[in-house]
What we know:
The chain is mainly beta. The protein has a single domain (2-133), classed as Jelly Rolls (Sandwich), CATH 2.60.120. It has two helices and nine strands. The protein is globular.
Amino acid sequence: FDVTDVGYTMSASFQPIDIDEAIAASVDGDEVTFLQVHNNSGDDYIPHPLLRVTYEETRDDLDGHYWAVIKTNALDCSSDSDDYGSADCNDSYERISLGEANLDAMTDIDISVGNSRLVITVEGEEKVDYDISYWGDLLS
């Protein structure tokens, strides 16, 4: 991450290798996570990332897309937490398509977190601009 006056930016270029094998070996057999943004550690830490960038073979009738999986609240929804099973925990992720994956070439992704915004740019095109003011106390 590069620290700036407006937050943090992570830039990555990647190309999946043997994606079918990776998906088959994944926990649920349907997605692979490539990038994550986590919260700070300490007393207010929650064991869930703010963002996961994943590849899924099929979701919402879209085949072979990258997805932004965004935690929509700052609740600890792990099985030993007070919020486990609550309505807010049961609906605590939003998935936004980042576009069809080109498995034959590198993909450039920039992720910026700051000023209560999560911004994701793929191949120079802004795909996500998301209000994360609820995450403010968890930023590291």
